[in-house]
Amino acid sequence: MVILQRSPTVAPRGGALARALGAIRHSAGTAPVAVGIVGTVLTTAFSWVPSLWFDESATVAATSRSLPELLRMLGTIDSVHGVYYLLMQAWFAIVGYTPFTLRLPSALAIGAAAALLVVLARRLLDRRTALVAGLVFCLLPRTTWMGAEGRSYAVGTLLAVVATLVFVRAVTGRGGSARRRGLWWVLYGAAAAIGAATFLYLGLLIAAHGIVALGARRLGILPRTGRSPVRGWLLAAGAAGALLLPLALLDLREAAQISWIQPLGGHAVRYTLVGPWFLDNVPFAVAGWVLILLGTAALVLRALHGVDPRARLALVIALPWLLVPIGVLVAVTVLAHPVFSPRYVAFSAPAVALLIAAALTVLRRRWIPVLGLALCLGLTLPSYLDQRTVTAKQDSSWAQVAELLTTERAREPAGQRDAVVYGPLRNHPDATMQVVAQAYPAAFRGLVDLKAGATAAERGTLWQGRIPLADAHPRLQGAPVIWLVTSDKRDWRPGVTEQLAQWGYRPATQWHSAGVNVVRYVR
Questions:
Q1: Which residues, other chains included, contact 406 with Cβ-Cβ below 8 Å and sequence gap of 6+?
Q2: SS3 assignment, position 401
Q3: Count of domains observed in the chain
Q4: Does the model's pTM come out above 0.85?
Q5: 359 with 414, same domain?
Q6: Most buried of the four, 133, 283, 498, 502, by CB within 10 Å?
Q7: What separation, in Å, do the N-terminal and C-terminal C-alpha atoms of the chain show?
Q8: What is the helix, strand, coil percentage profile of the chain, to 5?
Q9: Which residues contact 387 (CB under 8 A, 6 or more apart)?
Q10: Which residues of the chain have pLDDT under 70?
């Protein structure tokens, strides 16, 4: 990594970093590529350190079966993630599964989203603001989190940027044949369908685009004599909705999956203003919201005074993107049923970055964006470092458990046939600690699962069936060692110890690691 330092002989107008940013800004092709590389490298770095957690284990469980088995499972559970699972299954067929390859597509998606955000912001405003918006997006705590997460949030954010970019091109396109204009709306319909199929809540972004289309003339982003985008949006969104209707109905049938979401309650402010884009980083949230408000005010003033006619378009694109998804989900949560989780609106992070960038570039002083980016970097650093610790994801210590078993089993005679009992998984009554073995298969290879029932593929569910431990004696076949891996919240050690004692086993060694108890039983 090259660190650019300011020469003491240079006049204090932004320094070498400002000149470097200026050089990138003035190159039309360089800025998106450079920002995309920053986003990919930043989110890839140390993404392999944190242990996998429950949500990521669902991705592993779903994609570790055949295509027919996966399609059968999606008919009963997790259909909302179906497109992402299909993409990840194809990815693993090419590169194989490891925790690193699980998370790498998310980092690549963040890099692509950052690059396309620069392209989008350049079309909405100017090159300097576009460059700053892309870099701010890379530094948001939610961005660095979802870029190292083996779930669909990063891919969904990329598709949100793609859909918005195509929408802006369809709305603002001047001239050209009717066929060419229609092609942009066809592309928009495809982007809307793919985006909402990948993450259903992206449909709220399409609704936000509809608000913009309906008010295009009144909002002043089209001339009074310009062609209204309403018909194009209605046809494109309607076609996407018709294609997605069966999936939406299936998702509705599986709505019990989000029964874990709680009412907003006393933590509503933190949950809605800090969590979505700043996670638990309150200082960044305070600074971020101040800049969002300043950026919004700056765009309003520029639009009203005619300083920059593009400011009006930027404003009416960014604000609905930011406010409509979270507003709808919070309203439904308050008035009907809890459906809001902060990570469900992660795809609005580019709009946050765009408004912050508008605040940092409102004045034509080169040092202000540099100082603003340095502030964002300093504020995000604690979150970034915390996200790259072993137990960063829901205090999961699965990697440590896998390392423990690898070390201890390496001391045993080669070829020794041990057995294992997987106890319950903390906070998830339908799964067992067998998910650790799926996440880190090398550490558990060769162990006989005493309680294994019907496979998850046979059941058409995410998780394998279980049989009573008392019925598992025929599977022992003289195993010299039995391992118990269980939650410390629903502690199975007393019951398992009692049952194994009847078969001549006693606990020899015990370990504890962040929510998990591991016991080694010997004859």
A1: 442, 443
A2: helix
A3: 2
A4: yes
A5: no
A6: 133
A7: 55
A8: 65, 5, 30
A9: 50, 141, 144, 145, 148
A10: 1-28, 174-178, 220-226, 254-256, 259, 306-309
SS3 at position 428: strand
Q: How far is residue 492's CA from residue 497's CA, in Å, rounded to a whole number?
A: 8
List the structure tokens of 133.
Answer: 């918006």
CA dihedral 383, 388, 389, 392 (to 10 degrees): 70
- In the listed set 340, 355, 387, which residue is the last one of a domain according to the structure? 387
On the CB side of 103, CA atoms within 13 Å amount to: 27
Q: Are residues 504 and 376 in the same domain?
A: no
Is residue 448 located within the same domain as residue 515?
yes
If you count them, how many residues does the chain have?
A: 523
Report the distance separating Cα 164 and Cα 133, nearest Å.
15
Domain shared by 376 and 404, yes or no:
no
Measured CA distances, 295 to 324, 352, 353, 360 (Å): 18, 10, 10, 8
**pLDDT single digits (tens) 56-103:** 999 999 999 999 999 999 988 888 899 999 999 999 999 999 999 999
Residue 52 pLDDT: 96
What are the helix (H) ranges across 125-262?
A: 127-139, 141-146, 153-172, 178-198, 203-214, 230-253
